[in-house]
Amino acid sequence: MPTLVQTASTAASEALIAMATDCDLSAAQQEHIDHLVTKAAAGAWFRAYEPERDALSLKQGNAIARIILDAHADGQDTDAALIQSCLLPRYDVWSVALELAREILHRHDDALEDLTRADYADLTVTLAERIEPALIAADPSRPADALSSYDRAEIVFVLSPRGKHALDASITSHKPWPEFAELYVTEDLAHALAAMGYTLGQYRKASNNGHATEIPRGRCRIPRPDFPRRSAPLCSWDAIREIVDNACSSNFLFVLYAMVPIAQLIDLDPSGPLTFSKAALASWDPWNGTFHDAVSVPDVTVTPKMGTLMSAAGWHSPDSICGFVHRYYEADIRQAVPA
What we know:
Blueprint lengths: L3 H17 L6 H17 L14 H17 L3 H8 L7 H15 L9 H22 L13 E7 L12 E2 L14 H10 L3 H8 L29 H9 L5 E11 L1 H4 L7 E12 L4 E13 L5 E4 L6 H5 L3 H4 L3 E3 L4
């Protein structure tokens, strides 16, 4: 007398034969196929995203960071943006589904021996097509799972006025070279200085800059930055002088720079205050490729009103310009805790 297991196996084989021969499946046969598919998917180890043994290059990390930060800026889901970008290594679900389909059919080989090779191959593909979505639905991984703490990106916080594209907020020298005493006195300079903890008046005193103030059209004076000036400056005037005089370009940006783990960017909210565990205060010309930093600032907090958080992807990145010892610039970035 056949056992319950033998009966179920026979019924499953008959359902597979019906599927292979393009017969209409009965409700019972459909149930057997669904059971085979569900059991195979549940017993399989499939993760679309898992850490790779080798760390991503900074160039790869910069491109991924740009996707993440652009998604934040546009109010999009970062996971969806990363999946669509195809920049992260992803394991092939189809190959796993095919292997599971072959394992199912192998267990029923005796019952399927009368199928032609073509029918058997078509049955394998048809079964895999049913297994594939079940594997995807059961996959608990997300793009962040493909990233380790060693996968980093060059992140730049440009000290620039809100509402103005970061790369339109360049600091300009009156000379064909950068010189601390020869900077145009503009809204952009006032903003960057305030973000560093200084005023235009203090700059004029420290530099003896006597150039006329460049007042925005329609205003009678340079507007005050819309954030409180730092009570304690990020660095000394000597450090700022060094940053400017070594900018190697008559147009540059004041920035905070760090190499941060990419995974920390995914759940970050750039619309709120952010804290770097440390960041290099520097001048950066992303168009012509110059960079110079003078001081590393610990636990520096910035707000959206102070500037723009961006990836170095698509520009001359600081590391591609200078060829850094990475350990010196590696830092963490986190959501700042409200005071």
